[in-house]
Model the fold of this input.
Amino acid sequence: MNISDNCFNTKGDDIMINSNSINELANKLLEILSTSVDTVYLNKVKGEVKKSEVISFKDYKRIQANPFIISDYATLTTDGAAKLFGLINLLEKIDFKKIKVKDYFTEIEILNYKNYVPVTKTEDDYHVFYNVIKKAEDQYQLTLTIKELVELREKNLVRVDENFQRQSKIIINPETQQVQRHVVVNPKRVAEIATLIRERKYYFDELKLSLIRDEDSKLIYNEEEKTLYWYGDCVVPDGNHRWLACIKAYGDATLADKQLFENDRFSVSFTYNTPKELKDLLSQTWNTEKIDVKHKMAILSTGSNDVIDLMRANPNFEHVCSQTIVTTGNDGGIVLKSVLATAINRYYNANDFKLNSQKQECSNWIVEFYNYFTELYIDEMLNINKTKLSSWLLGYTNPIWVVYLSKLVKEKLTANPQYDWKIAIKKTFDSVDFSKNNPLFIEVIKPNYQVTERKMLLIEDYFRKAFNNV
Done:
């Protein structure tokens, strides 16, 4: 395969750079490139690097990510040292107060490198992906193992750009008062995904990679061999938390697990875009219909949701009640599954259940309790809409106080199996004012439809007093 471009080979004579200054230079680059918050300066550097014929943007990003790799450039080849000289020379021209070439290179080295002419790029300079499917022009699909994903980040072949991240935020630099955007990482989320990966419970979905189309990048697809050759600035526009989780899981794994990770694969969508095209792509991806948070809560794999699934599957559960358990308020019904799950976990610690028998026992009891509630209020339940106009009996807080009362009754039955709980519950309900004139409804339930800790405490206090007074 004949690949050519205006870049470097990896051959050359030993160079003469002053080895004593390498660490000093690395620390200086760390200060002005890696940890700097001066975005104006960094943007100027980025622009000049992209125009440079000596230092490629790929090499610049590698050095910015880890300045201490300059020893690879400074001690191996003339070509590598010339790239390093080209970068320092470029930085000095942008702001000589930050760094000077003469502080790190000898006069002979400066003479050798200042007129250095790069040579033809070789095939070895490209990164290669195998078994790649072309979906459309500049759009490709492939899979990468966890090990391969980790290696891409460790070798600084891909990076995260705050301008193409969903999880980013605007901050004001206190020193320069400049507006800057920073990538936001949620360590808890990263740890959760890493744990699922290690425990082999993670469902591998799709990551996105995008090679930025500019003068310093190139992509070649061999359709016959299904191979993709590329070099340049490659960013991670979607999937940063999952990528970081892969690095954490791989780093924490045993040797045996690492061997398994060589077979676990993410699907990867790889595109070749200008920055504007990439923003359009992300806008299309992110501009999707939002999923109701109650629906997301309802499908979580938790002990309380398992209890609810068992309730629905129970043939003894009165149909008029079971059919009213819904995932969102838009679905009609009486009982929001997310609120019911919150109540079941709050009063029975269902998310801590380890045994299916615990979930089944809890499910059976709540079904029995709700069946009695249905028996008492069958007419109201058969006319839900009419009931809701004048009463909060079948409102969104219903599962909070129903499940809470079931817990109080359960405690009584544990202490005294002969306790006549149905009489006590009927008296309790008879004593409650379910009209919308009740101060509990006006002051606590009506103002908003959020289930908060304060709201649950006030509802519990109200029904505990009603229950204890009968």
